């Protein structure tokens, strides 16, 4: 036999052997394609403020449009944070509490139209106003240009709109401005009337299926700070909940398929505290988010109306330490992680207990949701603002963002829209949205603090993507990956890496970015790989063994949520359908609707009786596709 043939056989045997035998010193990673199978929410790939602008003549630059598309952004939160609380959709004006309360043009109509023009398959999210006041006029703006050429200084939060007198050495004005000169009262009916303006018969023609998610204002626990021009003393949590429930009912009546997202909590302290302390009612003390959930449950039971769809919080840690930043993803679900910045959690029992340092805030919320709303509550989780310190290096930032996305994928988080967007994040988003698949499965590392694996598979389980993260700042990590219920095809698999990112932005498009492409040798049971320091790597694999999932044809379109508790969304691509029907297992047709040729999504707003149903899409040539759905 020729020597080169022997060499080829030898190399193949080495590949197989390396895939079967772990090497001493490696970190062991075990992936089970049959365990913890969960759909990955497409709305984890979100961001804030892509289309919003106070310049009425602003248009999105072509380069930004390409970046948004190629990075794979699927969810756009465009309300503007604090600026949303006093937004007046009739006048297209907003009052800016972080800039003297000055009133500026803010055209949500234009932003929403631009979004739906360029990203018809994406979701947009705006906000209702619960504060009670909205911008009326910019005639009483503080003349910031005349004062200091509109430069930032510590006094930009002073209430100077409305004739205020600035205090050059402090954060409070010498004379407060008069809010009645630039604001008007804004009841719940005015807030929800925006739904008619956007989606109604005489509205501007926006597609409501693409703007289903609505924030219930923004960070109400700190209104006495951000909006102290109209609320110098914070309203009680009970009064806030009355406002919330009143508006939620009105919004649901106008738009049954709406997704109500609240309470939009400001930061770690506010997860547990309303203002300066937890909530006390009837002699018992509750962390703020527990009280919120408890009151929502009581309101739903009393009214029979769903009042919450996504429980939403914000998170702004202050640490600059690399070793702490790369562990921030553990704040949400890890019941054993001691958070160095733990603060609000120490007030959980009514005092201030320094021994309480473990947050696991989303896990806590899931516990409270089950406790007060029952196991089938159907409420998901969202993080609609987050940001880390500007001084954090891009590769560290990429690891933080990737780790958070990974934890959210495997724990059924629905929405993730970071507020601060810094170098390293475009690259990470592109890597995840482009190469990850539709369902998360179990990935366990022998050293989760140092190395994590976030595997995803497609519906048929004939493909898998494994994201591997090395959190060490200066050491490569040799990792041995093994599989259960998935047999990778032996040979070379494509490997993408992000590491050593420079300070300048590198992501321009799918073709112009910092991804490093190479290959990794894969054996019949797995593969070994060396991960660079502070890196995010992605390996794409084909299943070389029996395919354990349904064939791709079994999922010709998406149906979610499934199981369903109220409305159902049906989404498809690459094919025209002209009719959708729902049939009970008895054969009785209970729903029928005609579809437009260009339509790619249908929302079925009616609640189905508990049972199993078949959803059928039928095309003009008689071709059809069927999916099963469970209603509870």
TrEMBL record:
One Pfam family linked to the record: Glyco_hydro_44
Signal peptide feature range: none
Domain Secretion system C-terminal sorting: 559-630
Domain annotation Glycoside hydrolase family 44 catalytic: ranges: 98-318
Listed Gene3D superfamilies: Glycosidases (3.20.20.80), Golgi alpha-mannosidase II (2.60.40.1180)
Protein name: Glycoside hydrolase family 44
Organism field: Dyadobacter fermentans (strain ATCC 700827 / DSM 18053 / CIP 107007 / KCTC 52180 / NS114)
């Amino acid at each position: 036999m020729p020597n080169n043939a022997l060499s080829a056989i030898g190399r193949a045997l080495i590949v197989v052997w390396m895939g079967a035998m772990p090497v001493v010193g490696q970190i062991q990673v075990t992936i089970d394609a049959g365990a913890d199978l969960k759909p990955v929410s497409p709305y984890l790939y979100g961001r804030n403020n892509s289309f919003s602008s106070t310049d009425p003549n602003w248009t999105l630059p072509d380069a930004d449009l390409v970046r948004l598309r190629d990075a794979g952004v699927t969810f756009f939160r465009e309300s503007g944070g604090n600026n949303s609380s006093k937004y007046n959709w009739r006048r297209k004006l907003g009052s800016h509490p972080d800039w003297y309360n000055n009133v500026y043009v803010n055209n949500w109509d234009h932003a929403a139209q631009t979004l739906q023009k360029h990203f018809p398959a994406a979701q947009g999210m705006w906000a209702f106003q619960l504060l009670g006041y909205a911008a009326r006029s910019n005639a009483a703006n503080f003349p910031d240009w005349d004062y200091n050429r509109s430069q930032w200084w510590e006094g930009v939060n002073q209430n100077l709109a409305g004739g205020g007198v600035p205090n050059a050495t402090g954060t409070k004005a010498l004379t407060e401005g008069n809010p009645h000169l630039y604001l008007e009262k804004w009841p719940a009916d005015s807030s929800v009337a925006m739904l008619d303006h956007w989606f109604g018969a005489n509205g501007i023609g926006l597609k409501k299926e693409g703007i289903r998610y609505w924030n219930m204002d923004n960070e109400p626990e700190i209104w006495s700070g951000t909006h102290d021009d109209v609320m110098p003393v914070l309203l009680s949590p009970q009064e806030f909940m009355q406002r919330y429930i009143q508006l939620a009912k009105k919004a649901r009546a106008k738009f049954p398929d709406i997704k109500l997202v609240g309470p939009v909590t400001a930061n770690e302290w506010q997860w547990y505290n309303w203002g300066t302390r937890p909530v006390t009612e009837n002699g018992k003390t509750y962390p703020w988010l527990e009280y919120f959930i408890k009151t929502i449950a009581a309101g739903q039971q009393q009214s029979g109306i769903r009042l919450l769809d996504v429980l939403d919080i914000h998170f702004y840690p202050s640490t600059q330490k690399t070793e702490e930043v790369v562990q921030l993803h553990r704040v949400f679900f890890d019941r054993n992680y001691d958070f160095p910045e733990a603060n609000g959690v120490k007030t959980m029992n009514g005092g201030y207990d320094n021994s309480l340092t473990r947050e696991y805030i989303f896990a806590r919320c899931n516990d409270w949701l089950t406790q007060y709303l029952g196991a089938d509550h159907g409420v998901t989780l969202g993080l609609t603002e987050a940001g880390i310190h500007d001084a954090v290096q891009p590769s560290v930032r990429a690891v933080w963002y990737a780790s958070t996305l990974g934890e959210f994928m495997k724990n059924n988080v629905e929405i993730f829209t970071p507020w601060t967007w810094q170098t390293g994040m475009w690259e990470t988003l592109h890597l995840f949205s482009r190469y990850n698949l539709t369902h998360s499965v179990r990935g366990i590392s022998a050293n989760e603090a140092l190395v994590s694996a976030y595997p995803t598979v497609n519906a048929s389980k004939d493909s898998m993507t494994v994201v591997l993260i090395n959190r060490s700042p200066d050491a490569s990590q040799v990792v041995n990956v093994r599989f259960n219920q998935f047999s990778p095809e032996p040979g070379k698999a494509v490997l993408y890496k992000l590491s050593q990112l420079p300070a300048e932005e590198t992501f321009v498009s799918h073709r112009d970015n910092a991804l490093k492409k190479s290959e990794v040798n894969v054996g019949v049971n797995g593969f070994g790989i060396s991960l660079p320091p502070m890196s995010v790597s992605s390996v794409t694999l084909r299943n070389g063994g029996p395919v354990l999932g349904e064939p791709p044809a079994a999922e010709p379109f998406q149906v979610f949520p499934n199981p369903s508790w109220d409305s159902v969304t049906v989404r498809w691509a690459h094919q025209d359908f002209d009719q959708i029907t729902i049939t009970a297992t008895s054969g009785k047709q209970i729903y029928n609707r005609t579809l437009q040729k260009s339509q790619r999504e249908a929302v079925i707003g009616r609640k189905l009786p508990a049972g199993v149903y078949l959803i059928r899409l039928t095309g003009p040539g008689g071709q059809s596709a069927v999916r099963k759905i469970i209603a509870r």
